[in-house]
Design brief:
By secondary structure, the protein is an all-alpha fold. It has a domain of about 60 residues: Orthogonal Bundle (Histone, subunit A). It is built from four helices and no strands. The longest helix has 22 residues.
């Protein structure tokens, strides 16, 4: 599904607001249907109604977040500073066959046995 910012932008661009009060309108089923179509999702009529309510809650929360002063917050590409932290490569001793097979639910002493899935 498109990210929430894209959904929010799509809805705001589609609605052509003239007054801030109009932003408070509920999301229509047609708007949900359009977003679902863009995301290649299909919803029943009941699901469309439920999704409209859910999207309205999300957009209400986004509108609440827009009230925050973020002028002092530096833009970032990721929420975690250390997002790419990986452990150092270290050579480890390989697991022996006997040790690996000791954890198997079934083996023939040399290989793992698994249930047959293809006839």
């Amino acid at each position: 599904m498109p990210c929430l910012v894209q959904v929010y932008s799509c809805l705001n661009a589609h609605r052509n607001y003239e007054h801030d009060d109009e932003i408070r309108m509920a999301i229509s089923r047609d708007e949900v249907r359009k977003i679902a179509e863009l995301a290649r999702l299909r919803f029943s009529d009941d699901e469309l109604e439920k999704m409209a309510g859910e999207l309205e809650k999300i957009l209400k929360y986004i509108r609440k977040l827009e009230e925050l002063d973020t002028s002092h917050v530096e833009p970032m590409s990721h929420v975690h500073i250390d997002s790419e932290v990986l452990r150092d490569d270290a050579r480890l001793e390989p697991t022996s066959r006997d040790e690996a097979l000791s954890n198997a639910p079934d083996s023939d002493g040399k290989y793992f046995r698994v249930p047959k899935v293809i006839e």
